[in-house]
Q: What sequence folds into this?
DNA sequence: CGCATGATTGACAGCAGTCAAGATGTGTGG
DNA sequence: CCACACATCTTGACTGCTGTCAATCATGCG
């Protein structure tokens, strides 16, 4: 079909949300998917914008965040290829509850609410997958709330480092800048910088730019409680 | 049917989750619902418990919360009759991600995961309603994260007061104790007490036990940003 | 009436945010 | 290849919110 760009159905099958669907359904999904692209730093939607659908990241990275009255941002999550965002607005409320911005050159597929809701009726697996995705997000959010209210910055940092640490290696590569990491952890760059250097002076980690080497995993686990 | 206690189907129709279903489906839901009851202060499930299903509050009130290493609790939400909890564990992961406790004498209906997942396939409305419920929760959590990371305690309190304020009246009745409210707002009773008395001395509210009268709504709105 | 729970108040300390300046790193254009 | 502009990161000094500890006071229930 001329209206479905190359490789969309294959891409969809690789995602958690649309994996394992029957070919015919995937074909229909592809036919309602609208390709969009954004340049680095471009705002995709703002809090309060009327929501006509949701996005699926195809290439690049997107951050979803909230802004305080003073302009400080709190990152809710960073989305990678294969992950959806803005989907909450499809099922509840008419407006996006947060901001989203492309962190680099990004391509997405946009699904219009009405077209998508139609499709969801045709294959219960879609709804089921979406339930799983939303449930995972709720878990992430719950953990975030726990970290913000019950843990101090060092504990949040330790938890983050351990969560992104590969199983077998001790080297961690930060996929976002330290400023952005600070916003994700609910703090400011200055504080993050101080904690990082304290960890380093205590011999728990070694920091070189965006590369962080875990030297004492047990100490980090101790700190994060 | 002998196995479905009185009034269950009627009760289900009043809930957001199971309202608007066909009578036959509601009948089947009622037939797999297991009535349970808990006394005040009783733990319903703990973080990490294997999750075999979820609850729907029938009478009473339940709090869902997390505990820090030092024993401080952060309330994620307080559930009233008609609201489900523990449902996230049905769709993602095998364990409950938090604690839940009856705040007073409470009765619930328990739905076993496998039986419920079977039913969900038979009526897409159930999945659709569940998506709406999860989406609403995600919005609540996102707002909670915003409040915790971007607002100070006075702003969180102001936001809470305004959120529970009835449209037409200025009297607010706290449905939970001030200690519990402190935990919900991510602070401690001492701090909450201080902020309440400061608001009062500034003439913004009047506090009498659990009754709080909003005297200057605009000032509160100003504070919550 | 007495105990248990919750609420308040005071004194104190410390984590972390703000402001400001300097250092480091990165990318671009000459 | 270098130099400059810009963003990011780091460091220092300082302030203040808020948590902790402790004691007192109110409330409600048996």
A:
């Amino acid at each position: 079909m001329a209206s479905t760009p190359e490789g969309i159905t294959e891409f969809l099958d690789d995602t958690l949300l649309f994996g394992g669907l029957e070919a015919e359904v995937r074909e229909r999904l592809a036919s309602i998917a609208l390709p969009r692209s954004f340049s680095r730093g471009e705002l995709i939607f703002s809090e309060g914008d009327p929501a006509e659908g949701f996005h699926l990241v195809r290439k690049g990275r997107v951050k979803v965040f909230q802004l305080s009255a003073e302009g400080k941002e709190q990152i809710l999550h960073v989305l990678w290829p294969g992950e959806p965002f803005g989907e909450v607005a499809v099922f509840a409320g008419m407006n996006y509850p947060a901001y989203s911005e492309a962190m680099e050159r990004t391509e997405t597929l946009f699904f219009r609410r009405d077209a998508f809701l139609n499709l969801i009726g045709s294959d219960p697996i879609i709804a089921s997958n979406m339930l799983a995705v939303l449930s995972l997000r709720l878990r992430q959010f719950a953990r975030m709330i726990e970290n913000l209210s019950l843990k101090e910055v060092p504990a949040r940092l330790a938890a983050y480092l351990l969560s992104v640490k590969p199983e077998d290696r001790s080297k961690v590569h930060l996929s976002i800048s330290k400023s952005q990491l600070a916003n994700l952890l609910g703090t400011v760059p200055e504080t993050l910088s101080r904690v990082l250097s304290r960890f380093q002076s205590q011999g728990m980690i070694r920091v070189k730019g965006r590369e962080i080497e875990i030297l004492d995993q047990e100490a980090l686990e101790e700190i994060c409680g």
Summary: Chain A is about 45% helix and 25% strand. The radius of gyration of chain A is 19 Å. Chain A has a mean pLDDT of 93.
